Amino acid sequence: MTEKGETESRCWVWALSLYSVRLVGKGRKVIAGGRVDCRGASSPHELNNGKLFQSKELVVYVMHSVLRVGLGHDTHRLSAGRRLLLGGVEIPHEKGLVGHSDADVLLHAVIDALLGAAALGDIGEMFPNDAEENRGRDSADMLQRAYEEIRRRGFAVVNLDCIVFAQLPKLSPYKQAIRRRLAELLEVDAEQIGVKAKTGEQVGFIGRGEAISAQCVVLLEKTTLEKRE
Q1: 66-222: CATH architecture
Q2: Which segments of 20-67 does DSSP mark as H helices, in order?
């Protein structure tokens, strides 16, 4: 890019950032900006000296925002001699979860929540448990494929909140690692991920240590810009 081109690009960004964003209705925002001649301007402050509003190339966009909520749940029984994977993190334990894939119950719940929010069915439809290609499959790979479908439709994750129900092992030492791994897989900040752990209080199949369950809720957002003349 030429020096002139770089200057014009920078001015455009400044102009957009200096014009205020106003709410004009539920789910709508107005974003306005204009190309300004910033030659001789040493700072964005100088650019704001009335020049933006005098620009004849003012462009106005209306930003439409669509929010979708998805709920996910899964349960897998425990069995000796298997790896225990939760949220893409291997956790030392004498038992692991049983399933057609690697049986990561938390990632399966996340997948269900994502697909549900985008009205794309459920994990069993996208990854049938009788398909040979899914035998022993890495659930992180399954999550990434599901998220690609979500993003292809214009959605992005706003936040994800999860609960893992397990009598044993104690999950407190692993919660931050699980948060980081989920954030990595969904390409968001760890601050957008919540992970909580609950026991079964020795009641039911969770409390007896027979199985582990996971539940989560996800918020997705799709934004589009409509140019207004």
Answers
A1: 2-Layer Sandwich (3.30)
A2: 44-47, 51-54
